[in-house]
Request: fold
Amino acid sequence: MGLRDPIRLIPLLFLGAIAFGTILLSLPIATNEGIGAPLLTALFTSTSAVAVTGLIVVDTPTYWSTFGQVTILLLFQIGGLGIMTAATLFGLMAGRGFGLRDRMATQIERSRLETGDAASVLKLIFLITISVEAIIAVILSLRMVTFYAMPVDEAIWHGVFHSVSAFNNAGFSTHSDSVMGYQTDPFVLGPIMLAVILTALGFPVMQDIRSNRLKWRRWSLHTKITVAGTLVLLVFGFLAILSMEWDNLATLGSMTLGEKLLNAAFHSAMPRTAGFNSLDVGAFEDETIMVNYLLMFIGGGSAGTAGGIKISTFFVLFAILLSEILGRRDAGLFQRRFGHAVERQALSVTILAATLIFASTTYIASISSLPLDEILFECISAFSTVGLSTGITADLPPTGQLVIVALMFVGRVGTITVATALALGSRGRPYRYPEENPIVG
Reply:
């Protein structure tokens, strides 16, 4: 197999982008002090940016210079567009499409794009990216100039940075407290939240909606599951956070009704992939942290900038559970049944994700004295490329930070993609063993 194999290209291109970012962020010009950042700091920040996560070990606006912040912005723009997009583009430019086996393998993690629409999908990706980022940047910049009396150049920089970060679900901010300074402002939190939700749907969903508009019956099963699942999770997260934090004076307790509704809605979207916070996550009630575990683990839609196991994976598993409870032969949703291959992929993704998070949490807990619940939060956030943190990232020991780096990388590339890349040379057995079923449960 050559490097044209997209399954092998994905990890290699991500690693290349991370290495390039690490080199740039290690330069003296990248820090405000004019001293090269330590290798681990540069590596962690570069990985977090390329993986569009947002976890940080140093304060972005005070530690990194303008050059460093621009580098970070470019890195999460690259990560958001996706190395998969770049690999597909290279194939089109060369005038050669990927083979059938490559396309089938690629679809495992990156949803089910129609390969005949590759050029159209690429155009859509770039069109939506540029358009939405520009619109959000203008809105935020104007708000910061008119309402916060920022100098025009400063307002434009903050607007562009937060727009690109929001659209790519990166969670990086040019403010030390993320967007907590705007927690009463719907004209800042609203556009950021909408950008996050839109891109978390995934590009196949955008392509489907563009082609079929709002004609529900013509939507693919993937689009139906992603849109319906997104709405369910947003409403669930909103109601859970609102009720659990209602009287918490450190979060929603002292706010007006409108401010409570705004921030509960904002934080119902952020744990699913983005990582911005308008409230102090470290001050959340324990039950709210538990809800965040679930929302982060599920993540957003496939083939977009969202992380987690993906909405479609979660609802495939839910449908399997429901079919077993009701005694149905097949599992499915919206009057369509799933193939066994999809069911196995969903189970594989979930088990691999849970295993990685469990192992990472256990290891970090064994080498540090930090609270277990905060370590678990950090590991889920890293794997799901969310970027929310209870504030312990910088306090992790060096080896613990390296574990987080690995989680961010695997979470962005995809568990199935990594597993497939490692097993590229394997082939199916030319025979099958006799069937015998163990007792389950």
Notes: Residues 6-100+113-422 form one domain. The longest helix spans residues 118-146. Residues 90-116 have pLDDT under 50 and may be disordered. Strands lie at 332-333, 336-337.
